[in-house]
Amino acid sequence: MIDFLKESEQHQHSNGGGWVANTAIVDKTVYVGPDAQVFGNARVFGNAQVCGYARVSGDTQVYDNARVSGDAQVSGNARVSGDAQVYGNAWVFGNARVFGNARVYGNAWVCGYAQVYGNAWVSGNARVSGDALVSGDARVYGNARVYGNARVYGNAWVFGNAQVYVGK
Fold first, then answer.
1. Confidence band for 63, pLDDT divided at 50, 70 and 90
2. Which helix (H) or strand (E) holds 85?
3. 77: buried, middle or exposed (CB in 10 Å: 19+, 13-18, 0-12)?
4. Cys-Cys crosslink for 122: which of 4, 16, 88, 108, Cβ 3.0 to 4.6 Å?
5. CA dist., res. 124 & res. 113, Å (int)
6. Helix (H) or strand (E) holding 24
7. Which among 103, 75, 76, 106 has a CA at the least distance from the CA of 88?
8. Where exactly are the structural domains of the chain?
């Protein structure tokens, strides 16, 4: 159950048994695992999966509309919130966070403790992992890798086969 909601404000999703707030919209084709939650004004559709202890949320107070669609997966302890969008074959997993107006799409992965936020985009076959942060209007795409403690922000673009790594 979603702890902060009344029982009458939520229901179990028919495909997977996870919890969905009555304010959220989740297609019947979506898989919401038994421990996953979708709440606020979030929208999940297509063949997307929300599993593990993942959370997809949009704040009903400020009309945030987090969206997960296509064949995208949000799993583990990952969080997608705000007006963030995860779509295509993208995968957000581990303890990763995608929020603000961020976009993760194509075959991109965001994992570990990585965060993508602001107006940042991660797309193509890009990977953002470890404790990396991608923020602002940054773009990471192609086969690029951003990992370790790397920070990509502002108007930076990382693309092609580029790798950005900062050790601890």
1. low
2. strand 85-86
3. middle
4. 108
5. 20
6. none
7. 106
8. 1-90, 101-168
CA angle at residue 82 from 134 to 149, to 5 degrees?
20
What does 115-126 look like in DSSP terms, one character per residue? EE-TT-EE-TT-
In the numeric block, which tokens belong to residue 39? 């709440």
Rg (CA), the chain: 15
Q: Identify the helix (H) or strand (E) that includes residue 128.
A: strand 127-128
| Tokens, residue 45 | 């559709």
Q: Which residue do the tokens 């979708």 mark?
A: 38
Identify whether the C-beta of residue 12 lies closer than 8 Å to the C-beta of residue 26. Answer: no
Q: What is the pLDDT of residues 69-91, one digit of tens each?
A: 999 999 999 999 999 999 999 99
Closest CA to 76 of 59, 93, 99, 62: 93
Contact between 163 and 150 (Cβ < 8 Å)? no
What single-letter amino acid sits at 89? N
pTM above 0.70, yes or no: yes
